[in-house]
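Two proteins follow. First one:
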Amino acid sequence: MAHTVRKVDYFSMDVPNRPGTAVRLLSTLKDAKVNLLAFTGFPHGRQSQIDFIPANSTALKAAAKRAGITLNARKTGFLV
């Protein structure tokens, strides 16, 4: 089985660890037509960390800015 490895940008943010937080953010990005290749979320202390892996980093940053969403600095990783 062949695997595809792709170098990607990803952006994280810490959010309150409450039900519905992630779905509100994802809905906002969906309405802005941001295409995500992947999304992860996990508990991080008393909060949660969520990571967005966009198909287009510029589109994600623009949509986040319009919506008042503060993303942490861009990081690079690999998507397999």
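Second one, unrelated to the first:
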Amino acid sequence: MWELFVRWLSEHYIEALGAIIGILYIFFSIRQNIFTWPTGILTSALYVLVFFQSKLYAMMGLQVYYVFISIYGWYYWLKGAKNKEVGKTPVIRISQKVFIWLTPITIATYFTILYILKNFTDSPIPYMDSLITSLSIIATWMLARKIIENWLVWILVDAVSVGLYFYRGLWATTILFLVYTIMAVAGYFEWRKDFKTNG
């Protein structure tokens, strides 16, 4: 058993390292700690390689997006619309206006990614890859803006991703996304407490 694990680890060390740092990323996100963003950048850089090797091209592209949105989130959490009383950017709820414009953007993103995957790649699961990717793009932007509903989107994305990564044989990533799903639920309730306190 130990030999099998060592052999697997020697072949999948990038995935394993990405999974470990990814758990730190979610932990920091829940705590609203600024280390969310540097750990997010590092996790994304590692997963570019993992998803390229697994032919999950939309998710690979998503990791590149994560690097840039992490830079934005880092800046926004440091310099954004700070609440002077608590000294940090506050947790907010999604406004009707933002929800209205995010919906068509999400749909358009889904169909654009689906078209690219079906016509220009050998992706074995273009519909699921496109769905997870488009929702993840929106959820990460919402996280960067400290919109509490980002966690609800992440719960859906993470739960669906568990099945996808299991199907593709990415065992460390499957476990990671099981943990992500549980942590996203915890994140929602933690941010909701903060929202009620400071909102």
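SUMMARY FIELD: The CA atoms of residues 106 and 172 lie 28 Å apart. The two ends are 51 Å apart (CA to CA).
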